[in-house]
Design brief:
It comes from Candidatus Protofrankia californiensis. The protein is an alpha/beta fold. The chain has a single domain, classed as Vaccinia Virus protein VP39 (Rossmann fold).
C-alpha cells in the first residue's frame, strides 16, 4: 500500500490562518488534559500550531506541514517534521499521546493510530468528530454538500476504539456559545461568521466543496440573515449556552494500565 504523507488537505497552500482562527478553547482543553491523567510526557500528533498542548507537561509535537509548524507560538517547543504514520519515537517512550481534530487528515489512519499506541505507555487521547452526527448542525441545511464531502473523511468512532485496543471511553464534548476554536459547530450561535472567508479557510471541509456551491450557500445565508429568515428558523440558538453536536473525545488505555477504571 502506498502511504501519502500529509493528508487530504493542502495546509501549505491553505493553512495560513489556522493559528488566528483555531485557538484553544479552555473548556475543551480541560476535558482533554484530564483525559491525559498524570502523564508527564505527552506526544501531540498532527500538532498544527500547538492548540491544546498542555503547558504543565513535557510535550513532543509532531507536525508534517511546514506552514503549520511556522505558526507555533514562540513559547512552545518546535515541532518535529514527521507524520502520524511513521513516528520517530521508540516503543513506550511517552506517558501519553494526543491527537486533536487531525485523524481525518491522515493518509493511513489505522497506521497512525497504531503508531500512537506503540509509543505511548498510557492513554491515547483522540479529539475528533462523529461523521454520523454532522448533519445535526443547521449549516447542513445551507450546504448539504459540505456534509456529503466531510462525512467520509472521519473514521467511525467504533473503528478508532477497535484499532487503539485496550479499554476505551467516548465522551460527547459540548460546544460553548463563545467557543474560540473556530471549527464549524463553534459558530452554531454566530451564523454571521460563515460570511467571513477567513473563517471558512480555517475549516478544511470547505476545501472539498466546489467554489460555486460555496458562493451560492454563503449568498443564501447572507440573504436569510438580512431578511430575518435565519433567526425565525434557528434564532433560539443565539441564546443557547451550549450545543451538543458531533465533537467526541476518545480515551484509550492499554489493557495493563493500572489507571483504567472498571
Amino acid at each position: 500500500m502506498t502511504v501519502r504523507i500529509g493528508g487530504d488537505f493542502d495546509y501549505e497552500a491553505h493553512g495560513g490562518g489556522y493559528a488566528r482562527q483555531r485557538r484553544t478553547d479552555p473548556r475543551i482543553a480541560a476535558l482533554l488534559h484530564a483525559a491525559l491523567g498524570d502523564a508527564r510526557t505527552v506526544l501531540n500528533v498532527g500538532a498544527g500550531a500547538g492548540s491544546y498542548e498542555p503547558a504543565d507537561r513535557h510535550v513532543v509535537a509532531v507536525e508534517p506541514s511546514a506552514s503549520m509548524r511556522s505558526q507555533r507560538p514562540r513559547h512552545l517547543a518546535p515541532a518535529i517534521d514527521a507524520a502520524a504514520e511513521d513516528l520517530p519515537l521508540d516503543d513506550g517512550s511517552v506517558d501519553a499521546a494526543m491527537a486533536t481534530v487531525t485523524v481525518h487528515q491522515w493518509s493511513d489512519i489505522d497506521r497512525g493510530l497504531r503508531e500512537m499506541r506503540r509509543v505511548s505507555r498510557g492513554p491515547v487521547v483522540v479529539l475528533t468528530f462523529d461523521g454520523d452526527a454532522l448533519d445535526q448542525f443547521w449549516l447542513a441545511d445551507y450546504v448539504p454538500q459540505l456534509i456529503v464531502a466531510d462525512r467520509p473523511r472521519y473514521p467511525a468512532i467504533g473503528h478508532i476504539r477497535a484499532v487503539l485496543g485496550g479499554t476505551s471511553t467516548v465522551t460527547p464534548v459540548t460546544v460553548s456559545i463563545d467557543c474560540v476554536d473556530g471549527f464549524t459547530e463553534a459558530y452554531y450561535a454566530r451564523p454571521e461568521a460563515f460570511l467571513d472567508p477567513a473563517v471558512r479557510r480555517s475549516q478544511s471541509a470547505w476545501g472539498f466543496v466546489d467554489a460555486d456551491v460555496t458562493e451560492r450557500a454563503v449568498a443564501q445565508l447572507r440573504d436569510d440573515l438580512e431578511s430575518g429568515v435565519w433567526d425565525r428558523r434557528y434564532g433560539a440558538l443565539r441564546h443557547q449556552p451550549e450545543f451538543h453536536g458531533s465533537l467526541r473525545l476518545i480515551t484509550a488505555v492499554p489493557p495493563d494500565d493500572p489507571a483504567q477504571a472498571d
